[in-house]
């Protein structure tokens, strides 16, 4: 589990695609200070496992689903990536709950600057738009961001100078792709509201929906 607060930008040293899987090696510094084999690292928002490491680089295997469903397949030697270690239980929770399991790849549709902020507009799959709300949270390339505005198939985020300096997002331009992870809590809430209680064999209820809340005076 991650927080979406990027710790450093790493550089891809090698990316070897073999069939549908891949092996990548990334140069890093801060995140390796307390690394162990098997540790989870978020690379551009994708949770990977350290299989080898030394003081200045780590290697991770990418399974076919990761290669197919994320932007990591586009990495090449020299690519810059956002890096974050798994959340420590004794640390501050500065972002939001990020699992590192990418929901979709989103495309940057527009970019503009206003004062010290950079605004990015992104196209998102309509099926995921229901999990994205104005002033809510979203992870783009593993970076926890507040949604500035949300549409039926789009969202806008604003990058403050700190985010511009410490992540790869400030370099994104129209046509570039980013890994999108929606707020995990929204997906859990939808699942709970739509499913019946499996232990209630005599009930015909379809779940905790709006009609049930209205019938009982809660909405």
Model description:
- The protein has 219 residues and is mainly β.
Fold topology:
Blueprint: E1 8-18, E2 21-27, E3 40-43, E4 46-54, E5 57-62, H1 64-69, E6 80-85, E7 104-114, E8 117-123, E9 137-140, E10 143-150, E11 154-159, H2 161-166, E12 177-182, H3 184-194, H4 210-215
Antiparallel strand pairs: 1-2, 1-6, 2-5, 3-4, 3-6, 4-5, 7-8, 7-12, 8-11, 9-10, 9-12, 10-11
> Rg from C-alpha positions?
19 Å
Largest sheet composition: 6 strands, antiparallel, barrel
* Approximate shape: globular
Secondary-structure element series: EEEEEHEEEEEEHEHH
Approximate strand percentage: 35-45%
Terminal CA distance reads 34 Å
Number of helices: 4
Q: Tell me the strand order in the biggest sheet.
A: 1-2-5-4-3-6
Mean pLDDT: 91
| Strands, count | 12
Helix content: 10-25%
- The stretches of 5 or more residues where confidence is low (pLDDT under 50) are none
Structural class: mainly beta
Quick summary:
The chain has 219 residues and is mainly β. Helix content is 13%, strand content 39%.
Provide keyphrases for this structure.
219 residues; mainly beta; 6-stranded antiparallel beta barrel; 12 strands; repeat
């Amino acid at each position: 589990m991650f927080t979406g607060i990027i710790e450093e930008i790493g550089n891809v040293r090698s990316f070897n695609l073999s069939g549908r899987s891949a092996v990548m090696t990334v140069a890093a510094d801060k995140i390796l200070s307390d690394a162990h084999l098997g540790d989870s690292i978020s690379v551009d928002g994708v949770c990977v496992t350290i299989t080898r490491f030394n003081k200045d680089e780590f290697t991770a295997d990418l399974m076919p689903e990761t290669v197919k469903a994320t932007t990591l397949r586009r990495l090449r030697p020299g690519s810059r990536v956002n890096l974050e270690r798994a959340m420590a239980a004794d640390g501050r929770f500065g972002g939001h709950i990020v699992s590192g399991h990418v929901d979709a790849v989103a495309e940057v549709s527009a970019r503009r600057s206003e004062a010290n902020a950079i605004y990015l507009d992104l196209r998102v799959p309509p099926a995921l738009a229901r999990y994205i709300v104005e002033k809510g949270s979203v992870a783009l390339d593993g970076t926890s961001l507040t949604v500035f505005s949300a549409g039926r198939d789009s969202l806008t985020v604003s990058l403050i100078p700190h985010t511009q300096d410490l992540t790869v997002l400030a370099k994104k331009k129209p046509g570039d792709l980013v890994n999108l992870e929606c707020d995990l809590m929204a997906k859990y809430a939808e699942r709970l509201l739509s499913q019946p209680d499996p232990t209630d064999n005599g009930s015909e209820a379809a779940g905790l929906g709006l009609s049930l809340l209205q019938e009982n005076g809660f909405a």
